[in-house]
Amino acid sequence: MIQKIALLCIVHCMALTTIAYSQHASSLSLADALEIGIKNNSEIAAALQNVNAAHGRFVAGVSLPPPQVAFTYDNVPLREGLRAYDEKSFEVSQAFEFPAIYVMRATQGKKEKKMAQIDFGVAKIRITQQIKSAYFELLARNKQIQIAEENCTIAHDFEKHAEARALAGEATALEALAAHVGYATAKNTLTVAEYQQKIALYELKQAMGLPSNNETMYALTDSLGTFLHAPSLRDLIDKADKKNGEIQNRTLQVDISSLEKSRAIASFVPEIALGYYSKQIVNAGDKKTVYGASIGFSVPLYGMLDYRGKVTEASANLNVATVQLRNAQNSLVTNLQKAFAQYKSTDAQRVLYATEILPQAEEMLRCAKVGYESGENSYSEFLLAQQTLALSRGEYIDVLLSCNRALCAMDEAAGIIE
Prior knowledge:
By secondary structure, this protein is α+β, with helices and mostly antiparallel strands. The chain has helices at about 1-25, 30-40, 40-60, 100-165, 175-205, 235-245, 245-265, 305-375, 380-415, and strands at about 25-30, 70-75, 90-95, 220, 270-285, 285-295. It contains nine helices and six strands, in the order H-E-H-H-E-E-H-H-E-H-H-E-E-H-H.
């Protein structure tokens, strides 16, 4: 009697918890989760700051060095004040590299800024897929809890029924004990599902960039079957080859390495310095102002080794960037093929479960229940049918989750940035 009361209390607490959760949980669609995550995720914020930093490097790269300004007093006798003599001069000079160097720096700065913008897009894609995966995981765990709760209800009902049959002499004590074990197993399955749900919720909040002390509960409004779509592999490869973020960045890196090689070759070109001066001269009490201009060039007498070293390094970097571009192109196709194959496999399993396995398992349980109630079947046969249906439903949820994860992996591998 005490055991029955305890079991009823447990079931009642489960029901109250479910009602309270539904009343206080905030509705959350996948679109809402993505919007929150894009705004709050720290990785995306850091990628945006990298864009600003790249713009700053571009401005600094095309800036001239500061000019040199000098004021001098000439021919002042020792121990005399400067203001007592009028012979003084003003000079200003500006040094700069060959103009083509600045053009190459500006071009490189623009490409580096473009790379930072692409990295920002890649970060958004990665975080988007993380949020999607976490959202689908929580959807699956919520569904697993529903299945576990249904199994608990069924197992509890048949435990009571088996006890009644045993007391009436219609069933053995072993069958009643098996029913009790079945109910205990169902409760354990529910406990595990609730734990997995909490972990999935924590991971979703983390992906959305919410603080760790956020206690908001969410009622997800989408379903696992809503987003099951996939383009053809050929179309996906063709589009990704042109707009994949990593491919774009590798291509830009090849261009930048080529520019750095050109700059290394141009480093032998001398720097230029322009100057102007104005000087006041006093001669026999007469003041006279004269001026002049100058132009100078650096002479790289000792720069041959430095020049050769820079050119060799830049050539090697260009070769490395070219190889990395080819590897990225090959990896893109391979990763897309793997993700597409995984999706097709899981999608075939989904269709099999929906059309054959689940209907047959449900019919098996229905027949076993009728046979058990009429005394034709034992509780063990009914328990087997019940476990088969529960296992099939759980596996179907896992298959749906795998389908959505495969689509996320495909989108992330494509990395298409418009």
